[in-house]
C-alpha cells in the first residue's frame, strides 16, 4: 500500500496531517472564546481585537511568517521566553509549523463560530436564566449545542487552511524534510528539482483526497448535528 | 406565590428614557396585564422584573425581597416568551423538565412533575417529540408547561399569544385564564391587544410612552377611563371623539348639536372639550331628532351578532355598533343620538373631567 508514495512523501503527508490536526485542535477553545468575546462582549478595544484576529486573512502569509520569526524565533521576545522558561522551541520545528497554521486558520475558525453565535436566539438563553440556570450552565447546555454546526464548519476551514498553508510556514520554520516539510512545501521542492514532477503530482492527489475527505466528513457531521439538534 | 411591588422604576438606554417612573402594586395571586401600544415600555418593564434588563432607578420587590441586583435565576420566576424559546435540541419532556434538572431533583420526581404538567396541558402524547415537530399552539403549551413545572412565585408572560392565529388565540386565552384560576400564581402578562387584557386580567395597567396611564379592573377602565389615551385604547371598535365647545346649555358639537352636560363642571364656559362616546352608546334616530348628530352612512359591517356602522358626520367619522340588524345603505342620511349620561368629557390636555 505504501509503495506508490516514497518514504519522503509519506513523511510529508504524515507531518501535514499532524500539523493540521494539532493546529486545529489547539485553536478550538481559544477560537470559541474569541468568537464569544467578539460577538457578545462589550469591552474597550473590541474592534481593535477584531481587526487583529482577522489580520492573517488579509496580510501576505509571508508577512505573518516573518512576524512569527521575529516574535517566536530563538532571539525573539516570545521565543526566548518560551525556550528559557519552558524549554519549548518553535522555530524550525514542526510545533512552529503548527503555530503558523493555527494563526493563519484562526480568523476562519472565529468567523464561522461567530456567524452561528449571531443566529442563536437570545431569548433561549434568557429563558434558561429565568428557569434558574447559571450563565455558565446556559452556555454549555443551551448555547454550545446550538452553535455546534458553526464550530464544525470552522474546524474544517481551519484544518483545510492548515493543510494548504505555505507562505507563513516556510518563512517561519523553513522547509526541513521530516521536521517542517509539509505537503505544500514538499510539492514546492519537487517542482524545483529535475524529475520531481511525479512526486509533486502524487502529493497533489493526496492533497485533493484529504480535502475531499475533510469536506465530506464535515458535511456528514453537520448534517447529523442538525438532525439531532435543530429543525 | 408573592406580591410584586414596583416603585418609581426607571430605565434609560444612554440618554433615551424608556421607562419614566412607574409604580405598580401586584397583589399575591393577582393576574395583572400590562397593555399599551408597541414602544410603550411594557416588555422592557417585564424584562426588568425578570432580571433580564438592569434597573436604572427605583425598586422592584418580589415578595418581601428587593430584587434589583438579584440575577434572573434567583428571582424564583418563570417567563413565557412570544417566540416560546423552546430548546430545539431537547424533547418536550426535556424542555419541560429543564428547571427541575437544574435543581438536581431526582429523576423519578422530575418525571412525575413533568408528567403531571403535561397531562394538565394535554401534552402527554407529545413528550418525546422535538419542538420542530409541534404546531404553534402545542409549542405555546410546552412553553407554559416548562414555566408551570418550575412552580415559581411569579409567572411572566411576554406577548405569549401574538404568534398564534386568531382562533387559537381565543382558545389559548381561555386556557391561560383557567390555568391561573387553578394555580393562583401571581401573573404578570404583557400584550398590545386590549381584548386580551380586557378578557383575562384581574387588573390592567395601561402604559403609554414609558408611563402608566391608568391602573384598574377591566370594566373600571372601560367605564371610567382616566384620560383620552385610555379611553381610545380600551374598547373595540374604539371610542368616538368629537371636539366641542362648552356653552351655557351644554357642549356644542360641530354639527350644531348641543349635548346636555352636568351643571357643575370644573371648567369655564367657552372651553374646548373633547366628548368621547362609545360606539354602542350611539343609537339610530330619525333625522332631525333633537340632540342627535346628523350624518351620512359610509360603511355597514354586519358581523352577525351586531352591526358596525361607520358614518360621516360634521367633524369626522363616527362608529356606532347596533345590536339589531340594519337595512341602512351607504349614502343614506341618518341621525345618531348619544345615549344619556354615557359620554365622557376630556379637557384639552386629555384628562377626564366628567361624564356628560
From TrEMBL, chain A:
Membrane topology term: Multi-pass membrane protein
Superkingdom of source: Bacteria
Matching Pfam families: BPD_transp_1
Principal localisation: membrane
GO MF term set: molybdate ion transmembrane transporter activity
Keyword vocabulary terms for this entry: Cell inner membrane, Cell membrane, Membrane, Molybdenum, Transmembrane, Transmembrane helix, Transport
Gene3D superfamilies: MetI-like
GO cellular component: plasma membrane
Domain ABC transmembrane type-1 stretches: 13-216
Membrane-spanning parts: 20-39, 51-72, 92-113, 134-157, 199-218
CDD domains on file: TM_PBP2
Cell compartments where the protein resides: Cell inner membrane; Cell membrane
Family affiliation: Belongs to the binding-protein-dependent transport system permease family. CysTW subfamily.
Function: Part of the binding-protein-dependent transport system for molybdenum; probably responsible for the translocation of the substrate across the membrane.
Protein name as catalogued: Molybdenum transport system permease
Lineage: Bacteria, Pseudomonadati, Pseudomonadota, Alphaproteobacteria, Hyphomicrobiales
Gene transcribed to yield this protein: modB
TrEMBL record, chain B:
Keyword terms of this UniProt record: ATP-binding, Nucleotide-binding, Transport
Biological-process GO terms, alphabetical: carbohydrate transport
Membrane topology field: Peripheral membrane protein
Annotated CDD domains: ABC_MalK_N
GO MF assignments: ABC-type transporter activity; ATP binding; ATP hydrolysis activity
InterPro entries referenced in this protein's UniProt entry, alphabetically: AAA+_ATPase, ABC_transporter-like_ATP-bd, ABC_transporter-like_CS, ABC_transpr_MalK-like, ABC_transpr_MalK/UgpC-like, Mo/tungstate-bd_C_term_dom, NA-bd_OB-fold, P-loop_NTPase
Matches recorded under Pfam families: ABC_tran, TOBE_2
Ranges for domain ABC transporter: 4-234
Keyword Transport in record: yes
Localisation per UniProt entry: Cell inner membrane
Any single Gene Ontology cellular-component annotation: ATP-binding cassette (ABC) transporter complex, substrate-binding subunit-containing
Family annotation (PANTHER family): BLL2173 PROTEIN (PTHR43875:SF10), MALTODEXTRIN IMPORT ATP-BINDING PROTEIN MSMX (PTHR43875)
Protein family membership: Belongs to the ABC transporter superfamily.
NCBIfam families: PRK11650.1
Protein's UniProt name: sn-glycerol-3-phosphate ABC transporter ATP-binding protein UgpC
Species of the source: Microvirga makkahensis
Lineage: Bacteria, Pseudomonadati, Pseudomonadota, Alphaproteobacteria, Hyphomicrobiales
Amino acid at each position: 500500500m505504501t509503495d506508490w508514495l516514497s518514504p519522503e512523501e509519506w513523511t510529508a503527508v504524515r507531518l501535514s496531517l499532524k500539523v493540521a490536526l494539532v493546529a486545529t485542535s489547539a485553536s478550538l477553545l481559544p477560537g470559541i472564546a474569541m468568537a464569544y468575546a467578539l460577538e457578545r462582549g462589550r469591552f474597550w478595544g473590541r474592534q481593535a481585537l477584531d481587526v487583529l484576529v482577522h489580520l492573517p486573512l488579509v496580510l501576505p502569509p509571508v508577512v505573518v511568517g516573518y512576524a512569527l520569526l521575529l516574535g517566536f524565533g530563538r532571539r525573539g521576545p516570545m521565543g526566548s521566553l518560551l525556550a528559557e522558561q519552558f524549554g519549548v522551541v518553535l522555530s524550525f520545528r514542526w510545533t512552529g509549523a503548527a503555530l503558523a497554521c493555527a494563526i493563519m486558520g484562526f480568523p476562519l475558525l472565529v468567523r464561522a463560530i461567530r456567524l452561528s453565535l449571531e443566529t442563536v436566539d437570545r431569548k433561549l438563553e434568557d429563558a434558561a436564566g429565568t428557569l434558574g440556570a447559571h450563565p455558565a450552565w446556559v452556555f454549555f447546555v443551551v448555547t454550545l449545542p446550538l452553535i455546534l454546526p458553526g464550530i464544525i464548519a470552522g474546524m474544517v476551514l481551519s484544518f483545510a487552511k492548515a493543510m494548504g498553508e505555505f507562505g507563513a510556514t516556510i518563512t517561519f520554520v523553513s522547509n526541513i524534510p521530516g521536521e517542517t516539510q509539509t505537503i505544500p512545501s514538499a510539492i514546492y521542492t519537487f517542482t524545483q528539482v529535475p524529475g520531481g514532477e511525479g512526486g509533486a503530482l502524487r502529493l497533489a492527489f493526496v492533497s485533493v483526497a484529504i480535502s475531499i475527505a475533510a469536506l465530506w466528513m464535515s458535511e456528514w457531521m453537520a448534517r447529523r448535528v442538525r438532525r439531532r439538534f435543530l429543525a | 406565590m408573592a406580591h410584586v411591588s414596583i416603585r418609581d422604576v426607571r430605565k434609560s438606554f444612554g440618554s433615551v428614557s424608556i421607562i419614566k417612573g412607574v409604580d405598580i402594586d401586584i397583589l399575591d395571586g393577582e393576574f395583572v396585564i400590562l397593555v399599551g401600544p408597541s414602544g410603550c415600555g411594557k416588555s422592557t418593564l417585564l424584562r426588568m422584573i425578570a432580571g433580564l434588563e438592569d434597573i436604572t432607578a427605583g425598586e422592584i420587590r418580589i415578595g418581601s425581597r428587593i430584587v434589583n441586583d438579584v440575577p434572573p435565576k434567583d428571582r424564583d420566576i418563570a417567563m413565557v416568551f412570544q417566540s416560546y424559546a423552546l430548546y430545539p435540541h431537547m424533547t418536550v419532556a426535556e424542555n419541560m423538565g429543564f428547571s427541575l434538572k437544574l435543581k438536581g431533583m431526582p429523576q423519578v420526581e422530575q418525571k412525575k412533575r413533568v408528567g403531571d404538567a403535561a397531562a394538565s396541558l394535554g401534552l402527554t402524547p407529545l413528550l418525546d417529540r422535538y419542538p420542530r415537530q409541534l404546531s404553534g399552539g402545542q409549542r405555546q403549551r410546552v412553553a407554559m408547561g416548562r414555566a408551570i413545572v418550575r412552580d415559581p412565585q411569579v409567572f411572566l408572560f411576554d406577548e405569549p399569544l401574538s404568534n398564534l392565529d386568531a382562533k387559537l388565540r381565543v382558545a389559548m386565552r381561555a386556557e391561560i385564564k383557567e390555568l391561573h384560576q387553578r394555580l393562583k400564581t401571581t401573573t404578570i402578562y404583557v400584550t398590545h391587544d386590549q381584548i386580551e387584557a380586557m378578557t383575562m386580567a384581574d387588573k390592567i395597567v395601561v402604559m403609554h410612552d414609558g408611563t402608566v396611564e391608568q391602573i384598574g379592573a377591566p370594566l373600571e377602565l372601560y367605564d371610567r377611563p382616566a384620560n383620552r389615551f385610555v379611553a381610545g385604547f380600551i374598547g373595540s371598535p374604539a371610542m368616538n371623539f368629537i371636539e366641542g365647545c362648552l356653552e351655557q346649555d351644554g357642549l356644542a358639537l360641530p354639527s350644531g348639536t348641543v349635548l346636555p352636560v352636568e351643571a357643575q363642571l370644573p371648567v369655564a364656559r367657552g372651553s374646548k372639550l373633547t366628548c368621547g362616546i362609545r360606539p354602542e352608546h350611539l343609537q339610530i334616530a330619525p333625522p332631525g331628532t333633537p340632540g342627535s348628530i346628523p350624518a351620512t352612512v359610509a360603511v355597514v359591517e354586519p358581523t352577525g351578532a351586531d352591526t358596525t356602522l361607520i358614518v360621516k358626520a360634521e367633524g369626522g367619522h363616527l362608529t356606532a355598533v347596533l345590536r339589531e340588524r340594519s337595512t341602512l345603505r351607504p349614502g343614506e342620511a341618518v341621525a345618531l343620538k348619544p345615549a344619556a349620561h354615557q359620554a365622557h368629557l376630556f379637557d384639552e390636555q386629555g384628562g377626564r373631567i366628567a361624564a356628560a
